[in-house]
Structure formats: C-alpha cells, structure tokens
Amino acid sequence: MPPTRLLIPALGLDTPVQTMGWKIIEDENGVRSEWEVVDFAAGHHINSAFPGEPGNVVLSGHNNIAGAVFQSVCVIGEPGVDFGLGDEMILEDKLGRRFIYQVNSWRRLEEANASIARRQENAQYLNPTTFAQLTLVTCWPPTSNTHRVIVTGLLSGRE
Questions:
Q1: Is the peptide bond before 141 cis (omega within 30 degrees of 0)?
Q2: What would the pLDDT profile of 87-145 be if each residue is shown by its tens digit?
Q3: HEC sequence for 25-79
Q4: Would you say 62 and 37 are in contact if contact means Cβ atoms under 8 Å apart?
Q5: CATH code, domain carrying 14
Q6: Alpha-carbon distance values, 119 to 111, 124, 148 (Å)
Q7: What is the rounded CA–CA span in Å between residue 20 and residue 33?
Q8: Tens digit of pLDDT for each residue in 46-94?
C-alpha cells in the first residue's frame, strides 16, 4: 500500500506523500532520466517499495522551494539540529497503518560539480534492498542544491 504521510517527531515534520515519477531528458550529454520531485509534499519514488515491505522506500522532497517540506531534514548533522541517529521516521499508508523507521545513517554528497560516475555512485542509495528501509533524499545547503542529503532508516516497528 503506498505511503500517504511522513512524520518525523524530532523535527515536528508532518507532510503528505504523493507518488513521484520521472521524465526523459536529452541534451549534449546524451539521454538520461530525471526525477520530477513533487511540490508541497514528499514524493514517493514510483519504483520503490511500499511501507513495511522488504525493500527501499524512497522519498524525495524540496529543501528550499515549492513548500520546502524537507527544509528541516537537509540540515541533519549541523550544530543545534535535533535530528539524527536513532530518531524515528513514521510512514503512514492509505489504510492508516503506521510504520516506524529509525535513522541508521545519513550522508551529504556532492552533486552539482560531480562527475557522471560520481552522480551514478550517489544514486546507488535509491536502489532496492532486501530489508525494510526508508530513504529520504533532499538537497543542501538550505540556500542552494549543490549537494544531496541522504537519510536512511531501518524498520523498527508498526502501529
């Protein structure tokens, strides 16, 4: 069942989740796909797992435009930010079931000036897993989008 809401209690974050797809881009570098991040909500990558299932549930959100739903997520690890390892991320599905994931890692990866190979390496965090994982993707810093922030969490419970 698709996710409909994401809650991160440590951040006071409560945002809707909508399905997110991609478009094909052709330019001087060739043909590639590009995710179409939804506005004013977290976007559930259409080809990722559903909450509670084995696999990688991937959600993307803007950090500084179109609702900036992941504005508070993008600053993970910075001084004074009360969000990090062990914190809960809760996904709710269409039936109202809640799946609790605990943050087990986060990374900040260069994207804007990175080589194609590096960007492909960064994208590995979107790949399927054999275990129940939630992955949040947003940009950093708060005034730009030169880096990607990847936050992962493992399923720890259900309500």
A1: yes
A2: 999 999 999 999 999 999 999 999 888 888 888 888 899 999 999 999 999 999 999 88
A3: EEECCEEEEEECCCCCCEEEECCCCCCCCCEEEEEECCCCCCCCCCCCCCCCCCC
A4: yes
A5: 2.40.260.10
A6: 6, 9, 10
A7: 13
A8: 999 999 999 999 999 999 999 999 999 999 999 999 999 999 999 999 9
Tokens of residue 122, six digits: 């960064």
Amino acid at 76: I
Please name the residues in contact with 131: beta carbons below 8 A apart, sequence gap of 6 or more.
54, 154, 155
Task: List the domain range (segments joined by +) for residue 128.
Answer: 3-158
Query: What is the residue type of 30?
Result: G
Q: Looking at this protein, which amino acid is placed at residue 68?
A: A
In degrees and rounded to multiples of 5, residue 119 shows phi and psi of -65, -35
> Residue 47 has which token pair?
């080809």
Q: Which helix (H) or strand (E) holds 130?
A: none
Spatial distance between the Cα atoms of 110 and 117, rounded to a whole number of angstroms? 12
Domain count, the chain: 1
Q: Which two tokens stand for residue 131?
A: 């275990």
Dmax (CA) for the chain in angstroms is 49
Which of 134, 130, 113 is CA-nearest to residue 122?
113
